[in-house]
């Protein structure tokens, strides 16, 4: 697999899958993993981003626990391992690793310097936090978990953030969804879309709850959102 190495502030490093578009330099999209590591699903998301003209990179955020995690949602054993990794994961360090990725990709030889991020599940939480804590140009959060416990961070978001919420999300209650919408909708930088009748991970390729119509709608909105934020300079 094509990978790059991302250095950290403390002199360590971790790897990231990278997909390069046909034409470079290109805007960058950091793809932020779910609880299953940099697996086939995340690599395919990267490859699709590259097909749309982005330099796509998916960092291994579990490297501090176990480097190279690559599992699926297909077996009970894999789910058990995924939740074990999630419970051991340090969110603040994860954001720092994403900030390191952002710094590296702004200066990458094939990058225009414009960088966005797109995250799913755990990655959806981290995309929200990147919007709040970093200078990333644009963020997209798919069914982020635990956001109702960190709504105060939304007050500091000034760059565009797109949020996709699954109305039947088994990990995000209706009450939590209402709190998220109530707290964040007033921020002009934040756009929130809800998807009725679909469960968590409705856009996970080949996932148990994949819903093609909702995934196509959300992905189309993501495409337009990223293009407006990251390709504006090229269009001008």
TrEMBL record:
<dbReference type="GO" id="GO:0016787">
    <property type="term" value="F:hydrolase activity"/>
</dbReference>
<dbReference type="InterPro" id="IPR051049">
    <property type="entry name" value="Dienelactone_hydrolase-like"/>
</dbReference>
<dbReference type="InterPro" id="IPR002925">
    <property type="entry name" value="Dienelactn_hydro"/>
</dbReference>
<feature type="domain" description="Dienelactone hydrolase">
    <location>
        <begin position="14"/>
        <end position="229"/>
    </location>
</feature>
<dbReference type="Pfam" id="PF01738">
    <property type="entry name" value="DLH"/>
</dbReference>
<dbReference type="InterPro" id="IPR029058">
    <property type="entry name" value="AB_hydrolase_fold"/>
</dbReference>
<protein>
    <submittedName>
        <fullName>Dienelactone hydrolase family</fullName>
    </submittedName>
</protein>
<keyword id="KW-0378">Hydrolase</keyword>
């Amino acid at each position: 697999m094509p990978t790059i190495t991302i250095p950290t502030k403390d002199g360590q490093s971790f790897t990231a899958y990278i997909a390069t578009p046909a034409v470079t330099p290109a805007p960058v999209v950091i793809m932020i993993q779910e609880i299953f590591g940099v697996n086939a699903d995340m690599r395919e998301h990267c490859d699709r981003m590259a097909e749309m003209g982005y330099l796509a990179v998916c960092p291994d955020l579990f490297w501090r626990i176990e480097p190279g995690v690559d599992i699926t949602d297909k077996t009970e054993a894999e789910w058990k391992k995924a939740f074990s990794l999630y419970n051991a994961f340090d969110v603040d360090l994860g954001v720092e690793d994403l900030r390191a990725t952002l710094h590296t990709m702004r200066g990458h030889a094939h990058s225009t310097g414009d960088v966005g991020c797109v995250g799913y599940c755990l990655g959806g939480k981290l995309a929200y936090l990147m919007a709040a804590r970093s200078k990333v140009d644009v963020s997209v959060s798919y069914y982020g978990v635990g956001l109702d416990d960190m709504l105060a961070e939304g007050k500091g978001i000034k760059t565009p953030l797109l949020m996709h919420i699954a109305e039947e999300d088994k990990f995000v209650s209706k009450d939590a969804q209402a709190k998220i919408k109530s707290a964040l909708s007033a921020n002009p930088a934040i756009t929130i879309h809800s998807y009725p009748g679909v469960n968590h991970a409705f856009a996970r390729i080949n996932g148990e709850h994949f819903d093609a119509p909702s995934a196509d709608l959300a992905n189309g909105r993501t495409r337009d959102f990223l293009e407006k934020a990251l390709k504006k300079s090229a269009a001008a």
